[in-house]
Each structure stands twice: as C-alpha cells, then as structure tokens.
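Cross-posted from the bioinformatics board.
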Amino acid sequence: MCRWVAWLGKPVFMEDLISRPEHSLIHQSRDAHCCKTAINADGVGVAWYGARPEPGIYKDTRPAWSDPNLLQIARQIAAPVFLAHVRASTGSATSYNNCHPFAVGRWSFMHNGMVGGFGKLRRRAEMGIDEDIYAHRYGATDSEAVFLTALGLGLDASPLDAMAHAVRQLEGMAAEIGATPGMRFTSCWSDGHTLYAARYASDAFAPSMYYQRSAEGTLIVSEPLDSDGGSWTEVPPNTAVIATQADFSVVPFMSDVATPNVVAQGEMPRTLSVTGA
Amino acid sequence: MCRWVAWLGKPVFMEDLISRPEHSLIHQSRDAHCCKTAINADGVGVAWYGARPEPGIYKDTRPAWSDPNLLQIARQIAAPVFLAHVRASTGSATSYNNCHPFAVGRWSFMHNGMVGGFGKLRRRAEMGIDEDIYAHRYGATDSEAVFLTALGLGLDASPLDAMAHAVRQLEGMAAEIGATPGMRFTSCWSDGHTLYAARYASDAFAPSMYYQRSAEGTLIVSEPLDSDGGSWTEVPPNTAVIATQADFSVVPFMSDVATPNVVAQGEMPRTLSVTGA
Amino acid sequence: MCRWVAWLGKPVFMEDLISRPEHSLIHQSRDAHCCKTAINADGVGVAWYGARPEPGIYKDTRPAWSDPNLLQIARQIAAPVFLAHVRASTGSATSYNNCHPFAVGRWSFMHNGMVGGFGKLRRRAEMGIDEDIYAHRYGATDSEAVFLTALGLGLDASPLDAMAHAVRQLEGMAAEIGATPGMRFTSCWSDGHTLYAARYASDAFAPSMYYQRSAEGTLIVSEPLDSDGGSWTEVPPNTAVIATQADFSVVPFMSDVATPNVVAQGEMPRTLSVTGA
Amino acid sequence: MCRWVAWLGKPVFMEDLISRPEHSLIHQSRDAHCCKTAINADGVGVAWYGARPEPGIYKDTRPAWSDPNLLQIARQIAAPVFLAHVRASTGSATSYNNCHPFAVGRWSFMHNGMVGGFGKLRRRAEMGIDEDIYAHRYGATDSEAVFLTALGLGLDASPLDAMAHAVRQLEGMAAEIGATPGMRFTSCWSDGHTLYAARYASDAFAPSMYYQRSAEGTLIVSEPLDSDGGSWTEVPPNTAVIATQADFSVVPFMSDVATPNVVAQGEMPRTLSVTGA
C-alpha cells in the first residue's frame, strides 16, 4: 500500500501538500493512518505540469523524509496540477523505475493497491500491453502494467473507460489463477488538464480515497492531510472523481465494465519453440 | 560495450584483478582500449562463489572508481571463481537490475555486446523466456534476456548448447526486423564449478576476448589487464573456452546451431483482445 | 536512536543475526521495540573481520529491508567478529559517510545515542580530534567525532579508557552549552580480536544494551533479537562488556573518568584573523 | 577539475545549456576538451533562482548522462539565473554533500580548481570558517571551504572582495605547507541578482573561463559549448566578470589582496588537552 496526493487548481507550491501540513505526504511516509503499512519508504515521486505539455517527473528510491532534492523541488515549484506519491512495495524491488508516478507523453499515473498474484501473472500481464506502448515498460510493477494497458486500450480517447477496462483485464487474470485478494485500485491520473481519480476493489476492501474542494481548487488524497475530518469527503468504492479548472464531478467507476474475454492461459506459448538445431 | 574479467583457479582476492593491475577492470571503466566506448561507468557488479552453492552478488550503479563498497568487497573476499563487470549501456537505463552479472540459482552470467534492434523486439524477446524462469526477469536489458532464454532452453543440462541456442534465437529475432548489426556476444557464465566464455557476432566484429593460464588458474577477460601482450591469448570468433579446476579446453561455438523456427511475428497477438465490455 | 548487533565467537554468517531471527536487525529497522524511533531507515552498515587485519566495510543509505547488496553480503560472509548497524538520524544527513560502523585501520566503531547540542558544538568537537586522525573525518555525525576523538586519545593502547575520555570530552562540551540531554552512548567497538561495548548516559536514560553468551560466542545487541527475554542479560548503565575468543568480563565504565579541562570556549578563535589586506 | 555553465538574462530552460548544445555540459561530462580530466562523472548539480529568494538546488552523485531527474528538471525549469556543474573529484568522495553548487541562504557557489595540499590542511581550513557559518559545512571539499570562508569574510557586503580574501586565506595555508600547485580557482557565485565569476591561480595555469553575451543575457562557462570559437571571449587570469540584468563588467581579481596573517600553524592546538582524568 502507498500514499498519494493530487492537486488541480490555482498554482500551489508542492511543499504545501508534500511537507508542510500536519499529516503531510512526507509525514505519512513514516506514519500512515489509513493503511496497513504505516511505513511508505520504498520510493517517492512527483509529476507536475508546468511549462511543457508533458509532466516533469522527479523520482527517487530514498525515503521521502531524507531526500533533499525532493524538498528543494517541492519548495521551488508551484504548479496548477501535480501528483505526488510515496511507495510501500507489495513485492517488486525498490528502484527508480518502480516508483510512481509513471508518465507516457502527456499522461501521468499513480496507484495505491495491487493486482493479486501479480508475481505469477506478470508475463501474461505484460503480453496484454500494446506493442506500441511496450517501450515504456521500464519497471516490474503491477501499477505500471495497469497504466500501460490502459494506454493501449485508448486512454487518450476515453480516460475513464480505458482505465476501467485495464483494471478489468488485470482483475480477470488474477481471477483466473484464483488470487485473493484480486484487484485493489485507488489511483489518480492526469493529462495536465483534467485530474481523474478512482476507487475500486474486487472485494470489500477498496483502499481509501478522499477529496477536499475550495475556491483554490481540488485536492484528492489517499488519506486526509490533517485531523480535521469534517473538511474531507470520502469517495465511495466503485466511484471516480473528475476535476478540471472549471468542473468537478463524481461518477460511477467499473460498474458497467464486463470481464474481458482474455486469451485463455492454455493458448499462450510457454516459450518460443526452437527447432532445427 | 562493457568490460569484464573472470577467474577460476586458486582463491584470489578480487581486488587483484579488479583494482590492482596496471589496466585493472576499474582502470578500464575510465579508459578502455579495445572497445569503442572508452567510458564504462553505467554500473558495476561482481559474482563470486564462496560459502554457498549460489554466487554472492554485489551490484551498484555508481562508476566503479567511486564505489567504496566495491573496493572493500574486492579487498576482503578471495574466491576460487568469480565474474566482474563494468557496464556501458547500449540503451537501457542505469539501474541495479540492469547491472551484470545476472544470477539465477547457482548460475551467473555477464555479457559484452548487444542484440541488434532490441528496443523494438524486447516484448518478443521476453515472450521467448520460459514462463517458469520469467520471475527472474528483473531488468530491461538484452543481456539478461539472453541469459534467461538460455536457462529456459536447458542451461543446466547443456551449458554451451543452451547458450548457443539462446543466442541464435535472439539473433533470429534481430534478423527478422532487419537490425544491423545483429548479435554481438562476448560473454561468460558459470555454475561455480565450470567457467564458460564465448565470443561470437553475426558480422565480422565480435567483441574481443582473451585468456591467460598459469599454475594458479585461468583468467578470461574482454581486454588484457596489462600491456604485456605476449602473455595473453586471443580467443577467435565463434569459439568458446571451458575451464574447470582440472581442465581447460577451447571449442567451437555456434557453428552447428541452426536458426530456430521462431513463431513468426505476425502470429503474435499485438495485445490481448478485450471484448464484451 | 539506532539499532545494532555485534558478534565475537565461532564464524557465523552475518545473515544469522541480520536477517534471520524473529526480531532481526532488519526487522528492527522497521519496528524497533526498545527505543523511541521505531523506524531506523537512515542507513545501514556492517564491519566484518575476515581475511585482512582491517575490517571489511559495507554501508549504504537505503533502508536495510530494501538493500539487495546487504542481503547478499550477509548471506555469503561468515566471520568470527562483526558489527552491524541500522541508523535513525538525530540530525545529520542520510549519507554514506554518516553511516555506521566507522573504521580506521583495524578499528571499527558503532554508536546508538547522541551528543547533546551537537549541531552547535560540531566545530569545537572537530577541533578536539587529533590532527593526525583528522583525515578520517569523512562525515558530520557526533558518533564519528566520538570515535575519532578516542583514537587520538590512545584507543590503541587503552581501548576502554580512551573511549571513556572521549565520551567525557564531548559530554563536557555539551554541558558547557547547557545541552539537555547531554551524552547518550551505547556503543560497540573492536580491533578484530576483542569486542568492547559500553552503556552510559549523562542522565538516567542510557540506551538499552543486552548480551547473550553461548558455547559459540558472545552476542551483544541494543535490543534482543527474539522475545525469549530469559536468555538475554541486560547490561546496566555505566558498564562495559569485554569479549575475546577466550574471555568475557563486565566492568565499570566512566565511573573514574573526570571531566576534562577542555580549552574554554571563549579562548577559541571564532575565525582566523585576516589582516594586511 | 570540473566543468560548469552559468546563465543570467531572460529566463531560459536549463536544458538549453545543460543537454542541448553540441558540446553541452552533459557532453562535457563524458568528453571535456579544455581540462586534463576528460571525464567529469563524480556528481552533478544545478542551482536555479525561481520563485523564492534562495536558489533551488538539485544535486546527485550519478554521472550527468545517466541521471533522469536532471534531464527532467533541466527540461521543465526556465530561470533567469542558474548555475550548473559536473564534478571530477580531486580527492574527496563522491557524495551529495560534495557536489556543487553549494548554497547558503540566497547565495550559491560552484568551483573548478583546487586548494593545493587540501588533504593535509583541511582541519586548519575548517577552523578558518566562521563559527556562525560552520553549520553549513556539510561535506569535505576544498571548494565548499572556500565558499564558507568567503561567507564569513563578508560575502553579503563585498561579494568580490570577500571571495578574493577567502582565496588568499586558503592559498596562504597551501603555501605554508609548500603545496604545489597552490590555489587554482575558476568559480562562479550568485545571490540571484548578480552573477560573479572569477579566474585565478597561484601559478600560470588558471583553469579556463569564457563568456558569451547576447541580447538574451550573459553566459559564462569553463569551456565553450560549441566549436564556434569566435563567439566566445576568454577571460584572462586574475580577472572577474560581473553580470546583472542591466550591466556587465570585467574587473581585476586578487591583484590587490595581500596574503593574510593567518594564525601560525604552530599556535594551533593539535588536540584539546584532557587533564584531571
């Protein structure tokens, strides 16, 4: 389980959410409240939209609290849209390429949750990524696999639907090998103009997600940044939030997405045949 | 292109090859002579066989010359068999998982060379890795892909043949997309008892390889560790060297391995079909 | 506050203490019981005595639980004497040079505790290090300052006395600026033949220290490695433990060491005078 | 020897100087032309003046060419004033705290050169840093020592004079121990409004420095960023350049700064006396 915060609104310094609040993201990296793993010290990352159409990305494997570069960047950069994440690995290594947010073109993506049994189905999951997207498969996480799958399924054209179908595709693979729990997914993604966030699980334990709106903008988080419970709205499971500079909406997520007919596992070649040798 | 050294014989301190000679591996990391890239500063690694059947592995992304841990380990550890490598990336990122040597069970492997066009055929290459081996696909390099492919093709039973078939399999993929150069492969691998090293290229430019034998043991290198040219024997292309504590032999490599009938590219699903959504 | 373990006896694999026990050092790095800071993730290090008179040193800034090199070294290396440490910074940065153990020549040293007000008296403390030793001042920690001070005060000749005088010297500096708490010191040091460990504080809160003896050797720790409380002996404050392969003794520490007449703070030049310009 | 570039003028993206030109700073990190050490791979750093009075600092120990964070920051951030540096160590370790630029308050500083014999006079040099500044002594380099000495000598009030006196103070220490070469100093420093750069050596070998002016602003470098020699003006030794958004001047440096009467080495306590024990 990981912790994340995302902002869309007037430009704010990233440190105002990452290091300043009572229960800031850096504070959560040492002592998270709403998830089983209180320590989220397996990497940190931010994606911010500034002077370019594509986001700037800073990621590092150090714990957030001891990363001087993160503090500097968060203090210097004010952005109208940014995503920030601290990671607690559910299996894959602590490495730059396994840190969130992931970015391809103008899209960025971060995730809290897991694809059940991913260690066993990684090769299948990677085959489910579109060939044209595959060059962006840098790491080994289930999270990046969901994002790249969604890109191949049309994230550009249908940001919410493509993500839902990607989640269903990976969830289906987990179900085929009987993994329990299956999919847990509380994620946020953006193209720099719109912020999408969704909460879902195959079971009753979807990781938490909250938002807070003000005249300044919309803040979406995996857990509140302060103890003022009243100011935060919990997002129910099977629900997505969509925020732009002008609009805000809460919509169903996953409810109408059927399980895909994925290629059955038995039909996949275990390896390429080598003959004639 | 990368630089490497390997030892099998009486136990010697790794620093005797890594940091002490006139043209030691660390010296080569700053100023290699026999390859186009004089700087090999994209990671360093050693695999040594000591108290356990499986090798110990130390890898780091720092340049070899500024890595205090490497110097300490090389100074403290004497081993009868070890492999050491400094990396110059041919495309993939500088990360722990992309550093050589790679290890699975009792096997270790390191490589100098490239699979032509690997950026375009990585997904195919990864599909060519046996499913039971795939959990060991940690990085994104062509080198690790060759090693894991060989493991799936029976490296345990036929260390030289399985490697040759793996090389042919990847070479075939490169040929299919018309990559030039195709395969360049000067590698070394071991199970802790026998040291294998081979030199091969699809074209006339197989990366260099030399050995030096003494009463103490066998030393195999990508380029000589000193300027005493007379004491080093160059290994010709299409040739492998096999060394144990008792024996030493030079044998043909790749000459009788036909191109595999790999699954044609068109038959591969570009992506899993998602229907019913 | 930090956590540490030290061994002297028959050679044992470092992993048997670092990663294997129920409440191993790596486990303590995430969830220490006997100290205020449950997370000790600001660096890790080991010093082992093997084939050389001086120790081998491995240190890294990653959390211990995500450091593959640490696991490899701990699994491969069996040593008759070693010290291992996970760090929770009390102020100085997370960097290689601030990680414990520190080593000079055949000596190694690690520390749990603090010198009160060290941020304000670092320059004075560094002036208290002998000029011939100063080249070994690589980092900025109070711990390294204590060790280097002790080396200058004759650690070679009087390992326990020199350390006690170093502790008193730094404690005196802390007292002069009215720092509270003053000195907290639970440390272990070795020349490869004898293991020294001592527990002390200026106040009533000396950090905990325990030992366990068996036919195999002596194990000294900052907190027990398992929940079998009965097998561990707590070392009282103002007490040192001395272990060799043949002997073991528990002796007073600091009780007869008077406060040094350090050069009064006012006598120290604030800066070199620059005249004649 | 190191390589650096500095900019003051209209805001430009840092990548326009760091990674884009024919002979960009990153290119120089692999293949510098104007200095003995062609490889500058012992750390990289940038200081930029953006939304805050104090600069933002990004530093890392990776070679510049393999640092994805550096590329991202350089691509996203446009600044009216920035300093960028790639390091080739002259002795001290590769660590974050030894990377340039160094920053205290609104000041940043970077250096190419060396203080002769610094390994032997580091303790003296550190005693020459004002006590109030000493908390900013994070690393072990001669470069940082020059900067902090200058801060203590009044950099705020007299940016050029204070630096000259600091250089003379360190040069004097080197001379006292007969170090050859003594001081080599080609440095750049800024408070965010004015850019200062100076070239000096105790001998005839002051490291090179060039500038280029345009309607956009002033660019100062340790060696030209392209092969168009005609567009670059070499700064002679004993000369400083001062640039603001409105003005540009070239002035003498060091010519009227006498050697300071530093406290004679013999008068310095080798260590604090410890009596009464």
